[in-house]
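Task: sequence design from structure.
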C-alpha cells in the first residue's frame, strides 16, 4: 500500500511513494495518464495506490468505493489472469428505500423500481426542502413517511430511540457515514433518532431484498486499465470482481485520490505524498528533471 494510509475494513501498512517499488510508481503514473485521457477533468492526481492479490479462488464481492474524502475518479490496472468486473445498482437505489424504511433521497436512476412514482416523490421532496428548512429529525420523519407511502404496510416500526452507530467511531474506515464541514470538522450524521426496531415483513422482505440488476460487465485482461469516474458511479452502483482463470493468480493495482482534509490527525502519514514523477505520456515515461548541483 503506497501513498495515503488505507483503512477500509482493515488498516494495512502504508509507505511513501518514494519507498515504493518502481513498478508501483509506474502504475500510478500510467493510471494518472489514463484518468486524464478519460475524464478531461482530473485536478488531483492519485495519492494512493494499493495492490490486491487474488490467489486461487479469491474474489472481491459487491461493494462501493464511496468513502468520504475519496476523489471522484478511481482507476486500476490488471496484471496476470483475466477477471470479470460487474456493476449493479445498489439495493437502496434500486428499491428506493433503505433497510430502515427511509425513502431514498437521491434522484432515481433509470431502470430502478417505481421510477416514475419515485421521481415525482423526489421532485416533491426537493420543493418541500426549498420551502422549509427541515431539521435532520424532521427530514428523517418525512423520509420514513415517504418510504411507507412507497411500500405501504411493509414495515413494522419499533419506538423511535436515539442511538449512535458504533461504526462512526471507526474513523476513516466508515468515512461514508461522516460529514466533513468547510472547516474540516467531521460531524457524526448517523447519530440521529432512528427506529430502534424496523422489520420488514417476510413477504415484502423478499421483494425489497431483491438485488438490483447488473448494468455493466467488463472483462479485465493483463495490462488493461479501468477508470471509474464521477461520484455518482460510487453512489448508485456497486461492483464486484471475479477472476475467471482458476489456478492463475491475478493482481490489481488501484489508484485513488484522498482529500487530506478528511483524514484524522492521528491517521495522517508521517511522510510526504510526493507528486507523480513518472509523467507517463501514453508512449513511455518522462521522468521529472532531477535537481542538479550546477547552477
Ligand atoms: O480487482 C480489481 O480490479 C478492482 C478491485 C476493487 O474493486 C477495489 O479495489 O475496490
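Answer:
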Amino acid at each position: 500500500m503506497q501513498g495515503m494510509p488505507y483503512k477500509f475494513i482493515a488498516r494495512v501498512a502504508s509507505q511513501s511513494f518514494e519507498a515504493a517499488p518502481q513498478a508501483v510508481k509506474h502504475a500510478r503514473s500510467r493510471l494518472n495518464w489514463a484518468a486524464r485521457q478519460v475524464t478531461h477533468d482530473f485536478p488531483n492526481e492519485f495519492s494512493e495506490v494499493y495492490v490486491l492479490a487474488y490467489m486461487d479462488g479469491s474474489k472481491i464481492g459487491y461493494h462501493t468505493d464511496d468513502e468520504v474524502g475519496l476523489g471522484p475518479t478511481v482507476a486500476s490496472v490488471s496484471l496476470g489472469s483475466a477477471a470479470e468486473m460487474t456493476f449493479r445498482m445498489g439495493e437502496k437505489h434500486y428499491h428506493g428505500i433503505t433497510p430502515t424504511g427511509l425513502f431514498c433521497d437521491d434522484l432515481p436512476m433509470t431502470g430502478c423500481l417505481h421510477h416514475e412514482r419515485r421521481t415525482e416523490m423526489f421532485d416533491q421532496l426537493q420543493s418541500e426542502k426549498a420551502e422549509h428548512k427541515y431539521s435532520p429529525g424532521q427530514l428523517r420523519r418525512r423520509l420514513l413517511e415517504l418510504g411507507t407511502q412507497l411500500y405501504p404496510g411493509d414495515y413494522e416500526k419499533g419506538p423511535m430511540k436515539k442511538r449512535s452507530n458504533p461504526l462512526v467511531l471507526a474513523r476513516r474506515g466508515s468515512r461514508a457515514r461522516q460529514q466533513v464541514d468547510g472547516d474540516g470538522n467531521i460531524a457524526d450524521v448517523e447519530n440521529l433518532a432512528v427506529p430502534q426496531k424496523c422489520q420488514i415483513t417476510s413477504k415484502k422482505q423478499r421483494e425489497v431484498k431483491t438485488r438490483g440488476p447488473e448494468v455493466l460487465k467488463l472483462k479485465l485482461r493483463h495490462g488493461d486499465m479501468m477508470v471509474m469516474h464521477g461520484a455518482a458511479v460510487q453512489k448508485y452502483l456497486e461492483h464486484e470482481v471475479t477472476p475467471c482463470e482458476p489456478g492463475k493468480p491475478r493482481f490489481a493495482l488501484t489508484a485513488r485520490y484522498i482529500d487530506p482534509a478528511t483524514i484524522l490527525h492521528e491517521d495522517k502519514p508521517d511522510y510526504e505524498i510526493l507528486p507523480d514523477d513518472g509523467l507517463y505520456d501514453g508512449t513511455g515515461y518522462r521522468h521529472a528533471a532531477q535537481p542538479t548541483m550546477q547552477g
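The first strand starts at residue 2 and ends at 3.
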